[in-house]
Amino acid sequence: MSSSDQSSSHNVFVYGSFQEPAVVGLILECTPVIVSAQLHGFHRYRLKGRLHPCIAPLETGVIDGKVLTGLTDAQLENLDMIEGDEYMRKTVEVLLTDTSDNMQVEAFIWANKDDPDMYGEWDFEEWKRLHMEKFIEASEKFIEWKKNPDGRSREEFAKFVEEDPPFGGKKMATSEQSPSYNVFVYGSFQEPAVVSLILEFTPVIVSAQLHGFHLYRLKGRLHPCIAPFETGLVNGKVLTGLTYAQLKNLDMIQGAEYVRKTVEVVLTETSEKMQVEALIWANKDDPDMYGEWDFEEWKRLHMDKFIEASKKFIEWKKNPNGKTREEFEKFVHEDRPVA
């Protein structure tokens, strides 16, 4: 192919760091025309120990992202190389946000759709705030390496991109260096006796309200869930100053039916707004959601059972002894009083 007219062009849907023009401009060595789009039927997951997300099929999922338009073969090859063999490039159909037109594009899908390292929901704004500078540095290193490998392998670059110091590790020696997380809770974790067992300490807890959500009961379960509801209001608590390990404990006990998102709450005592993490029910149209969950009723009828379940969870986490998480989950989810 001797002319640009003969070269093929590619449109690629991106959903992670490549939504940021400063990053994609370095990787592609130009800034393409970028348009907003939605991909239906997939969910955007966090990946344990990594800064970047992945996507995998989820029937009810919707991902907001960008389409990089008019890429050359060489630029597409750059994306293939930086993503590595854990992703598969596939043709998918997206919906363009501005025009509502459908568009066939390429997208990088996580090869192992059952990867246990996938969890929660990756947040672009959080990434920009916490990790963008690191990714720009990584992008610069990638370009340097591609132009002059000098005997180094791609794995050295991959290790740099995948390392996640803000989530703890050898480089984080003191509590002052470690990040902390604030998590809005609305069910059994409002009860200090439960949360202190799960986290193995009692954090500072403040009251807060979350607008735009409703607190539902779940058929056959002791615990509630929340899902978007335009006029809804959920009263709950914020667990402040959690470590990443404590946050991971909450993720583990809640399981894959919840996705962790950043939301804004209003603190009850000061009326100040606060950005926090919250665990949202993944299936917002779940027919098992009904009514309104009641914290005082739960304390009266089920708290003792949950404290027992929390002890079993900690025992299991320290010594699984061949048992699966499902055995603990069954114990927590069973709802004898309404059966």
Automatic annotation (TrEMBL):
<dbReference type="InterPro" id="IPR036568">
    <property type="entry name" value="GGCT-like_sf"/>
</dbReference>
<comment type="function">
    <text>Putative gamma-glutamylcyclotransferase.</text>
</comment>
<feature type="domain" description="Gamma-glutamylcyclotransferase AIG2-like">
    <location>
        <begin position="183"/>
        <end position="294"/>
    </location>
</feature>
<dbReference type="Pfam" id="PF06094">
    <property type="entry name" value="GGACT"/>
</dbReference>
<comment type="similarity">
    <text>Belongs to the gamma-glutamylcyclotransferase family.</text>
</comment>
<dbReference type="InterPro" id="IPR013024">
    <property type="entry name" value="GGCT-like"/>
</dbReference>
<dbReference type="InterPro" id="IPR009288">
    <property type="entry name" value="AIG2-like_dom"/>
</dbReference>
<keyword id="KW-0808">Transferase</keyword>
<protein>
    <recommendedName>
        <fullName>Putative gamma-glutamylcyclotransferase</fullName>
    </recommendedName>
</protein>
<feature type="domain" description="Gamma-glutamylcyclotransferase AIG2-like">
    <location>
        <begin position="12"/>
        <end position="123"/>
    </location>
</feature>
<dbReference type="InterPro" id="IPR045038">
    <property type="entry name" value="AIG2-like"/>
</dbReference>
<keyword id="KW-0012">Acyltransferase</keyword>
<dbReference type="GO" id="GO:0016746">
    <property type="term" value="F:acyltransferase activity"/>
</dbReference>
